[in-house]
Specification:
This protein has 99 residues and is of the alpha+beta class. It has helices at residues 15-29, 59-67, 69-78; strands spanning 2-9, 35-42, 49-56, 87-91. A hairpin with a 6-residue loop joins strand 2 and strand 3.
């Protein structure tokens, strides 16, 4: 399992535009065979900040996602709506409570 957090900060006044693109990305990513989980969160204490919690079946599934037309299109559209660059963190699960 490949697990990532991707975080984006909307530029002032661009929050709603960014959120539309991020929500569309969820719809398209849900169609990918190797996508296990793709959850978008709004960070409560940081206005305009969004975080995806992502799980993919394996590295090949994550690589496919990153090269997909819908992902590349979303990244291009997001560029002018962001303050700075997004961040991507690869995570390793240590322990959890099962859902």
């Amino acid at each position: 399992m490949e697990i990532y957090n991707a975080t984006f900060q909307a530029a002032a006044g661009k929050e709603k535009e960014l959120e539309v693109i991020l929500r569309e990305l969820i719809k398209e990513t849900a169609k990918e065979e190797g996508s296990v989980e793709y959850r978008l969160h709004r960070i409560v204490d940081a206005p305009g900040k969004y975080r995806f919690c992502e799980k993919f079946k394996d590295q090949a599934a994550f690589d496919f996602h990153c090269k997909s037309d819908h992902f590349l299109s979303a990244i291009a559209k997001m560029g002018p709506l962001l303050e700075g660059e997004g961040t991507l963190e690869k995570l390793e699960l240590v322990d959890s409570i099962p859902e």
